[in-house]
Amino acid sequence: MPKHKLKITRLNEKIDRLLDLVERMAPPQVPAISLEDANAFVWQEDKGALTPVKDVNRVEMVLLKGIDHVGSILVENTKRFTAGHAANNALLWGARGMGKSSLVKAVHAHINDNPGNTGNKPLKLIEIHREDIHSLPGLLNKLRDIDHRIILFCDDLSFDGDDTSYKSLKAALDGGIEGRPQNVIFYATSNRRHLLPRDMIENERSTAISPGEAVEEKVSLSDRFGLWLGFHNCSQKEYFDMVVGYADYYNLDIPADKLRTRALEWSITRGSRSGRVAWQFIQDMAGEMGKSIN
Questions:
Q1: Domain 40-231 CATH class label
Q2: How far, in Å, CA of 26 to CA of 22, rounded?
Q3: pLDDT class for 209, splitting at 50, 70, 90?
Q4: In the chain, where the domains are located
Q5: Within a 10 A sphere around the Cβ of 45, how many other Cβ atoms?
Q6: Please, how many CA atoms are within 13 Å of residue 246, restricted to the half-sphere of its CB?
Q7: 112 half-sphere exposure, CB direction, 13 A CA radius
Q8: pTM, full prediction
Q9: First vs last C-alpha separation in the chain
Q10: Which residues make Cβ contacts (< 8 Å) with residue 145, sequence separation at least 6?
Q11: For 231, phi and psi rounded to 5 degrees?
């Protein structure tokens, strides 16, 4: 083979090896997001993809006792959103076990189960984990042009210490140039009204030259939610109403006086009363009776 042809051949081989190396170093292509496989998804930040959830762990709206007022507010806000009208991001905050996350999932199902609420397109629910909040702006950009109304849901949202991912949330909700996409609304639950621990706020105040300004940026995060829905510890009557509601719904044939006595004993051993405690009691009673209620 002539020398010049041999040189060309070797050069081509080097180019091929270089191209192969570049391909291996390039990040894998991220698949386009589709919401057609299910009505609920979980955002997997490490994969840049949504995992469909075929069977959502939820309870019916009728079983959520003691939170009727906040429930009706969230339902109305969600109806407005699905109809294309103005609606607010919502922060559900307060006592543990009182149905904050259950209400979000129940409202999603309630909207889709009632004809006329969503038109021809079902409302979608996407859960984003607290540790993936930094990826929220990118996720919103992926959802912006999708032809569906979407509830973006973060359960147990809060921030600690030097965590700065709250800035991503602030910008994504309404502070960025593009703002929140018209087809997405953000619902979050938290045990903290301001999403920050009190000692963190007090520490900022005590060490700052201007205490008021020092915490304004972090505390103002809560102001990005137009709806603040408070959940408070339930009374004994509300607790018994929850227990009776569950027992009736699942056809647990238990005398009223026995049900009340056992439910009271259960709450005393747990040291609290809440919707979660009522549900756990009903599961125990159903198991004792040899029934499944899942």
A1: alpha beta
A2: 6
A3: very low
A4: 40-231, 236-288
A5: 16
A6: 27
A7: 19
A8: 0.80
A9: 77
A10: none
A11: -120, 125
